[in-house]
Amino acid sequence: MKRPILPTRRSVIAGAASTVLLPAVARAESGTGAMRLRISFDDQQVIYQLVNNPTVRDLISMLPTELEIQDFSNNEKIVHLPRRLDEGGFEAFEDETPGDLCYFLGWGNLALFHDDYTFRDDLIRLGHIEGSVAPLLHKGTYPVRIETV
Fold it and tell me: Does domain 31-148 have CATH number 2.40.100.20?
């Protein structure tokens, strides 16, 4: 009689990790292969079309999540993340635009720009808003839900 082949610890861990991580990435991809993110707070909601880079993929791996969104300066809202993201998506850019979603390397937070800003080697662009920045003008600090669409 043959002995059954038992899985190794490594294969069990790899299988469990893929069960958890791959569905999140798959859910983030629409029929066009584009990744999208929804950020909801108070009675506001914004959708972002995401770029495909290691920083975005790391962000998606921690979703859905509920955190806090707050106003910062006069041109952005910020969300502090529970941990730092992979910085492999860093690439300099010169076409800053209101509606950009970025990761701020200094503090490890999301920056949701609703007005002009300047790239200073401290941001990783994650995506751009679909539609108007008007929901980001809603002032205050609120619980926020971040999830893939």
Answer: yes
